Amino acid sequence: VQLVESGGGLVQPGGSLRLSCVASGFTFSRYDMSWYRQIPGQERELVAGITSIQSGGSTSYADSVKGRFAITRDRAKNAVLLEMNNLRPEYTAMYYCFSAGYWGQGTQVTVSS
Fold first, then answer.
1. Fewer C-beta within 10 Å: the chain N or C terminus?
2. Is 90 exceeded by the pLDDT of residue 78?
């Protein structure tokens, strides 16, 4: 099983980023997928989730990102995407993909002017 994140980087406040998590080694469509973030010294926080395709692909979000973030699946690429808009400095963190009991290596998002 492998989860590989990409798409992080440095962006100004109010900007946008799209994170991608490509999954391999398991049946992608059968598992819920989630994005978490972690600031050094703090616990990992659930940001967004999407249920398995069999369960309908329902989405959920942390209150702090509702209306700014969108999680979707790209079935052709076995990937889960996190579209992040109107970013704030407090969103600066390492963002991780999680599914089937496995974590990706993370991708750093820095929101700063």
1. C
2. yes
